[in-house]
Amino acid sequence: MLTTTVGNYPKIGGKAPNLRAAKNRLDRGETSPEEVARIADEVTKEVLQEQIDAGVDLVTDGQIRWDDGQTYFARGMTGFSIKGLTRYFDNNTYYRQPVVEGKIGWSSPISTDHFTFASGNSSKPVKAILTGPYSLGRLSVLEAGYEGLGPLVLDLAEALNNEALALQKAGASIIQFDEPCILRHPEDIDLFLEASERVVRGLTVKTAVYTYFADASKVADGLLRSPFLIIGLDFASSDGNWQVVEKFPADKELGFGIVNGRNTGLETADQIAQACQRVMQHVPQDRLYVNPNSGLEYLPREKAQQKLERLVEGVNKAREVVRA
Amino acid sequence: MHNNLITTAVGSYPKPPHLMEARAKAARAQISRDELMDLEKKATEHWIRLQEDLDMDILVDGEMYRGDMATYFAENLEGMDISGLVRSYGNRYYRKPVATGAIKRPKAITVDWWKYSQSLTDRPVKGMLTGPYTIADWSFDEHFGSREAFVLNLARVINEEARDLQAAGCRYIQIDEPAASTRPEEMALVAEGLRVSTEGLDAVTITHICYGDFATVFDGILTLPVDVLDLEMANSDYHLLEYFEDKKTDKILALGVFDVHHHAPESIEAMEAGIERALNVLPGKQIWVTPDCGLKTRTEEESMAKLKNMMQATNNVRARRGLS
């Protein structure tokens, strides 16, 4: 039973220099992009250490340099332009929507430098995270270059496969693909599976697919036979995944999203421990990753930190029960 | 006041830089609340004069004294606290409210400000409230555990405020629900929240909705219990007008004719084309002309450039079509 985080982490609110203020200075022409990048490095180091100090076993770089999961990759590929703001799921969080204007192309790694930096500044393994091809396609606007979502998603899978291979080469030992969109589009499960096969091609490291903001009851059969080793399910947004996990395959591992990354109300360690014991009736503890249901950037910084501390405390309680 | 293509703004205007500094100083108790209010009043008068100079029909006070539109109300309500900073997009952050108990309004929140701004002009000034669904959706909930209970408690409080505005003489009351399109399955709750909020009002009621997958919620939006629907249009290339083509409605459409998230003004021609498209669907009496959204993220110069083009475009269309 390992603890991990799912992705993003609040960018401001720690002791490192304030990234928000630095970006404002950059907007006013009072500082350089290099200085902002240096501060993003500082914040990344702090965020890695904050997770480690909380006791998290497998950390992320907190996606401090990402505006969001879509534009971070779209800006690094050819075929995209970036359009107006749109809402990200049912959150009061917005992103600039990528627009597909032509054939998608990948020419060089987008995220490996950031991954290498994070790995070099963490005493715990760092998980590499990519937005999955289905969700990246679904959250973009298709204007030209493709007949429909299907061919677009399959080309995105090729591009993201190149990115994943580059991350593997850079030393990533576990690569996570975020696919929240498939929960809302069960009609596309075959496309999702085909794209998933392409995106993991040639990967020998552990792979994960994470879903969040809803339960997987409408796509469970497909999702659970997708080519990823670890399947991340959200147990905080609703209760539906308790049914899904009843038929969890023996050859898969579970990303158990039990702490709510979208509400400040703190779970107690006992609640978390009890949930872990309950899920262990369906998934053995050596196949469990315990984590928040989603990224933690929907919370103020100190709440994100407290949530991780509770998560670890709860998992430690559950570990004691297992040992006893 | 024109009979056709009435012009107004959605709500917020940019605060002048010296007011932003004064707000920061007041937060650190380096200047008094009275000193701050004096600057807020001057800035309010400045925007009232600018809107008169533009010859706009219905004015707004520009919200010089408000921060975030949900947080401002939460700050003035019992049962709601304010948490730390949470990012909404790009480099924009807000202090997200938290429901911690039953919600009450100790005293009127916006009425003195409305009276002040209305005292400055003979043109009608809109009363500006944030809708219960949006305040709830943009807050953490540590108390209710039910979205419906949270929304309806807020609706009763917003209704008290709306009635006080009307009693003070306000003839146009806008209750913004930008979050209304977030969850299609909750449209009935949005409507019920607005129904309770507008109970007992004979003022013209308006609601503003933005950022959403309107296609799935459009029928619901058309049945909301308000007189005027203010919808962002330019940001989505007026696609929404297609839905009005095959619906009969008595509602007035307040048509957003420019994107507020870009620095550069849209051309007069583009705005004219947008208004013309709306006139092909609805008569001029049923169309108001507005920006897509509040302007607080723009500078005064950018806002004025955009508003001047909006007014010119409206006047050009009125002249061409012989509309009074």
Question: What does the secondary structure layout of this molecule look like, with pairings?
Answer:
The complex is a heterodimer of chains A (324) and B (324).
Chain A: E1 2-3, H1 19-27, H2 33-54, H3 71-74, E2 78-87, E3 94-105, H4 112-120, E4 128-131, H5 133-138, E5 141-142, H6 149-169, E6 174-178, H7 189-199, E7 206-210, H8 220-224, E8 230-234, H9 241-244, E9 253-259, H10 269-279, E10 288-292, H11 301-323
Parallel strand pairs in A: 1-10, 3-5, 4-6, 6-7, 7-8, 8-9, 9-10
Antiparallel strand pairs in A: 2-3
Chain B: E1 6-7, H1 17-27, H2 33-54, H3 69-75, E2 78-89, E3 92-104, H4 111-119, E4 127-130, H5 132-137, E5 140-141, H6 147-167, E6 172-176, H7 187-198, E7 204-209, H8 214-222, E8 228-231, H9 241-245, E9 252-256, H10 268-279, E10 287-290, H11 300-321
Parallel strand pairs in B: 1-10, 3-5, 4-6, 6-7, 7-8, 8-9, 9-10
Antiparallel strand pairs in B: 2-3
Structure description:
The complex is a heterodimer of chains A (about 325) and B (about 325). With about 325 residues, chain A is an alpha/beta fold. Chain A has a single domain, classed as TIM Barrel, CATH 3.20.20. Chain A has helices at about 20-25, 35-55, 70-75, 110-120, 135-140, 150-170, 190-200, 220-225, 240-245, 270-280, 300-324; strands spanning about 1-5, 80-85, 95-105, 130, 140, 175-180, 205-210, 230-235, 255-260, 290. Chain A has a seven-stranded parallel sheet with strand order 1-10-9-8-7-6-4. In chain A, helix 10 links the parallel strand 9 and strand 10 (about 290). In chain A, helix 1 packs antiparallel against helix 2 (about 35-55), helix 6 (about 150-170) packs parallel to helix 7 (about 190-200) and helix 10 packs across helix 11. Chain A is globular, with a radius of gyration of 19 Å. With about 325 residues, chain B is an alpha/beta fold. Chain B has one domain (about 5-320): TIM Barrel, CATH 3.20.20. In chain B, helix 1 runs antiparallel to helix 2 and helix 10 packs across helix 11. The termini of chain B are close together. The model of chain B has no long low-confidence stretch (mean pLDDT about 95). Classes of the chains: A alpha/beta (about 325), B alpha/beta (about 325). The interface of A and B includes residues 10, 84, 263 and 302 of A.
